Structure formats: structure tokens, C-alpha cells
């Protein structure tokens, strides 16, 4: 009887340790780092569920009724992640969408062998509308020698070097989805016990896609290839099927749907956003790693996201992501109608 409960309840900690046990040389550093990201997720979730309450909302720098500085949720999420991780001796450096420069480990703390890149609260403008938001993270092994402060080189790495990546979606429930390169697993936060429990083991994108997800409000700015691809998804251009449209305007919510339901999400470049909107290191690379680990594919429309060598921390990329055949179809339309890159 008691065994049955133990078999059913797999906490994220147990899962991380199980994965670690497959690597006899593992020191537990990555496990500790992942565990801390789960903890950050719980802290952030405890604030996002109170999103509409006045002491949380408001621009950074405003003063609340107690005369305290009001902090925006994205600034709070950023601080939680930095402060939980800067003293552990696991990291060489960090990079955050909320920080312009590399985040160093303070002098009084030891430096470690990993680098952590994160978007603390993606889609935070959606909070005002009570729509899901998310935290995205990617972990790399440092490139520069151990024992010294990490440098930009440790952060500017190709997505295919990721050691682990994942996201936390703060929706009708809070879920953490991650991969260490050995498939994708999803955990749901049980608020009554404060634990992430394994609810979605070994996630694979369904073979039959259901959804497409893009901001069609920008369609007139898109290239011919992308416009034709969009018509194809809607059953035109000789397509034999049409997909349902879903667009939250919150990348993690939209991609989480694609992961579980099958389909394609895209945020292309256009004259207003010549490199797209989404950031390579904090958004598109980590999420591409997860989707590819679940059997999908991610591309700029011309090359795999995971092959891009970043040159700047806040570099942007166009993104087409989801079921492989849909993303390859986008590449085909772009190659046929949009000509070579200028
Ligand atoms: P943010 O990092 O400033 O929150 O912006 C990223 C968000 C994504 O979550 C989402 O996919 C996109 O912006 C939506 O942009 P748009 O409103 O142009 O469709
Ligand atoms: Mg973002």
C-alpha cells in the first residue's frame, strides 16, 4: 500500500537525483542548480498568483502605501533567481533578460563550472490581463578555465552546447518542464504541499499537429514566403489539412500548448523587427533545446536555432518551432519565395 504512494509520487528532487545517478561521475552540482531553479519557480509562483493585488503591480520605483518601493514582478523574479544562485559556488556567471551586462559572482563567493542564462518573467505584460507568464532558463558548462570569474565567452554559447534547459509556466497551475538532454519531463506544482510532482513523464510532441500560433496582426509586414506558409497552415496553398489558431502573446504559454498538443509557433522577422523579437540566449535557444528533446525542431526559417553562435548577450532571432514537418515547411516556403539572405 505505502509502496504504491511512493511509486506514484515522484518529486522533482527525486527525479533530478535519479537522472544524476545515470552519470557516475556527476558531482551533484547540476542537480543542485536545477533544484534551486525549482525553488525560484515556487517563490515566483507565489507572487504571480497574487498578480492583481496592488502591492505588486506598478512600475519599478513607484512608492506603495507603506512608503516602500513597489517592485514589478519581472524585477522581483530576476532578483530571486540571482540571489538564490550567486552564492552557491556552482556558477561562473549569469545572464538575464533583465540585466544589460553579464552578472558576475560577487567576490566573497566561490565561482563554479556552469553558466546560467534566464528570462525571469517572459510575457510579463500579460500579467495585467491575468494571462500565463513564464520563466525560461538555460545552463551551459563554462568554457574558460575553472577557478576564475566567468566571462562573456561562458555565456555566448551555441544552443547545442546546452547541458540543461527548461521553463516554468505560471498558468492555471504552475508547471516546470525541463530536459538535461535525455528527453523532456513536466512537473506540476501541488500548492497544498509545495512540491513539483512528475505529471508529464517523457513528453513527445504528438505526431498529428493541432495548432499554429503567431501574431497574425503583423501579417502585412511579413515576407511572401511567411504569408504563404500561413495560408498553407490555414488550408490554402495546396495544403491537405488546416490547423486551429491559438495566440496568447506569451511565448511560454503558446509553446507549452505546441509541446503538448502539437503544432507550430512562429515569431518572424519583419521590417519593424528585422531580427525578430525574441532573444536567442534567454528565449529561443533554451526553448528550442526542450522542443528538440521532445522530437520537434526549431529554426530561424533558414537555419537551426541551436547552431547559431551568439555574438551578443541580447541578440534576437526569428523563430519557427514545433513539429518538424511544419517547421521544415516554413523553411521551404522561405527558401522558395524569399530568396537568399541579403
Ligand atoms: P518580453 O520578453 O518583453 O516579455 O516579450 C516576449 C513576448 C513573448 O512571450 C511573446 O511571444 C511575444 O513577446 C509577443 O509579442 P507580440 O505582442 O509582438 O505578439
Ligand atoms: Mg522575454
- Helical content (DSSP H or I, runs of 4+): 25-40%
- Please write the CATH class name of the largest domain: Alpha Beta
Describe the sheet with the most strands: 8 strands, mixed
In CATH, the architecture of the largest domain is 2-Layer Sandwich
Distance between the first and last residues' Cα:
66 Å
Instruction: Report the strand count.
Output: 13
Mean pLDDT level: 92
Question: How large is the share of residues in beta strands?
Answer: 15-25%
Number of helices: 9
Integer tally of domains: 2
Low-confidence runs of at least 5 consecutive residues? 63-70
Computed over alpha carbons, the radius of gyration is 20 Å
Output the strand order for the largest sheet. Answer: 2-1-3-4-5-6-7-8
Name of the CATH homologous superfamily of the largest domain: Fructose-1,6-Bisphosphatase, subunit A, domain 1
Oligomer: single chain
Classify the secondary structure makeup into a structural class.
alpha+beta
SSE run: HHHHEEEEHEEEEEHEHEHEEH
Query: Looking at the structure, what is the overall shape?
Result: globular
- Classify the fold: give the CATH topology of the largest domain: Fructose-1,6-Bisphosphatase, Chain A, domain 1
